[in-house]
Amino acid sequence: MNISRTEQRVLHVLALGGRIHHRRDGNRIVAVDCIDREGNRLVDCDLTTFARLKRRGFVHSRGGAPYELTELGRRSVRAEFDQR
Hints:
Elements: H1 5-15, E1 19-25, E2 28-35, E3 41-42, H2 47-56, E4 59-60, E5 68-69, H3 71-76
Antiparallel strand pairs: 1-2, 2-3, 4-5
């Protein structure tokens, strides 16, 4: 599956325990913030990247909670060396 570098970066942060917090205006999502497990914000995650991940079924939300990685998203993310 062809996944862009930006999408891979967001999926990797989500695989390590991150979440995508969203803001709504009525029924539409107008802004998203990708937060890693330590509370840092990922700048690469914008509304278009989020829309592509959601359309492909890589992220989901339950009951208005922040978006998290699905099983399909977990299988699609490439291994990446963590430089911590």
